[in-house]
Amino acid sequence: MLISQKRERVECFRRNAEGLWVLYSYTQGSEINLASVDFRTGIDAIYEDVIFTKEDAEADVDELRSRG
User: Fold this and answer.
1) CB-side exposure of 54: number of CA atoms within 13 Å?
2) What is the SS3 assignment for 68?
3) Which of 15, 33, 40, 49 is the most buried (most CB within 10 A)?
4) What is the pLDDT along the chain (68 residues), one digit of tens a residue?
């Protein structure tokens, strides 16, 4: 599980029935379910007291541009 510091986004890799790893991305308003540990929460709860800055948004845009 990867939790972004720059924007409201969580990424989670899960193994499917064929044994392949699949990426699941969650954004604002999504609910995250971690069945292996019987945990479920909204992404908004994870970021409850986080305040993103303008610099965070700009860094995120630069990162996306560099990915091509």
Assistant:
1) 0
2) coil
3) 33
4) 999 988 899 999 999 999 999 999 999 999 999 988 999 999 999 999 998 887 766 666 566 567 66
DSSP codes joined into one string, 48-65: TT----HHHHHHHHHHHH
Residues 68 and 51: their CA atoms lie apart, in Å, by 28
**Burial of 17 by CB count in 10 Å (0-12 exposed, 13-18 middle, 19+ buried)?**
exposed
For residue 52, the tally of other CB atoms under 10 A from its CB is 14
Q: What is the DSSP letter of 31?
A: E
Distance CA 57, CA 39 (A): 29
